[in-house]
Amino acid sequence: MRHHAILIDEIMGIMFDTISSEMLERMKYLEGIDSRERIDGTPSLKRLRQIPPETGKFIALIASNCPEGEFVEIGTSAGYSAMWISLACMERKIKLKTYEILPEKIKLARETFEKAKIEKYVELIEGDAIENIKSLKNISFCFLDAEKEIYEECYDIIIPKVVKKGVLIADNVISHYEVLKHMIEKALSDNRIDSLIVPIGRGELICRRV
Known about the structure:
Elements (H helix, E strand, L loop, with lengths): L13 H4 L3 H17 L15 H12 L5 E5 L5 H13 L3 E5 L2 H13 L6 E5 L2 H5 L5 E6 L6 H8 L3 E10 L5 H12 L4 E6 L5 E6 L1
Parallel strand pairs: 1-2, 1-4, 2-3, 4-5
Antiparallel strand pairs: 5-7, 6-7
């Protein structure tokens, strides 16, 4: 059976054909780091722990079809997923707000956005995302990929702020199902949203505000 990971070179389509050579180079660079860290014993908090390319493609497509409103990412890491989301931002001429608390990852993310030449479409906000997102309004798209211990609190803050037909996507819901079980069950029974788990990458929980 073919491995889930998709080579960047295999990805086709109008949106994905707009990936610049600079972004493509940075994506491949970060993919290499992530691959090595998953087998060399790098401690969990220090690893990039980024999404695979097929998840990046998936969230970009979802984001591109969301209604008007704020685009948010909780957990920037080195900026890999933000590059994918930025493709939707380019189409819509808006800016993604992405939150990261760890200094070493903030440094990597800034380098990513500079090298990929997407600073016009991404705003990196340093500090505790929980406190920062409380002031947000009219969220159209949110990608949640942070420490699993804060997922449910983020869900509780974000969902009331999501506009009609807006979307929250939470990563790792299959790979970390036991840790996230309570939040997942809450989402699947929440009458404010339509929700399902998509078995792509490490598992994506899709929540669409009704």
